[in-house]
Write a structure and sequence with these properties.
Layout: H1 6-32, H2 50-65, H3 84-87
């Protein structure tokens, strides 16, 4: 499945913890304003009918017509994967 290292696995715990804390914070803010929230795992929508509706039907035409904009502007650090490490 790829080259994972012990460091990758060590970083996973704190990353998941930060995600959980951020999600909890947003949930509490929403409840305070009486807004219901629901967690959606991003890749799960790709396998359902909503994924193709967004990524194949809506988004290409919306971007082309200017009804939807990709933001923020991308930061370009070179051309090719060999420039990726220097970006960080």
């Amino acid at each position: 499945m790829g080259d994972s290292t012990a460091q990758d696995h060590a970083n996973l715990g704190p990353t998941l913890c930060r995600m959980a804390v951020a999600s909890l914070g947003q949930t509490l803010k929403a409840r305070k304003k009486r807004v219901r929230t629901k967690f959606i795992f991003g890749p799960s929508i790709l396998a359902k009918e909503v994924g193709p509706m967004i990524y194949a039907t809506f988004l290409p035409s919306a971007l082309a017509e200017g009804r939807y904009q990709a933001a923020p502007a991308p930061l370009v650090f070179g051309a090719g994967l060999d420039c990726l490490q220097a970006a960080f």
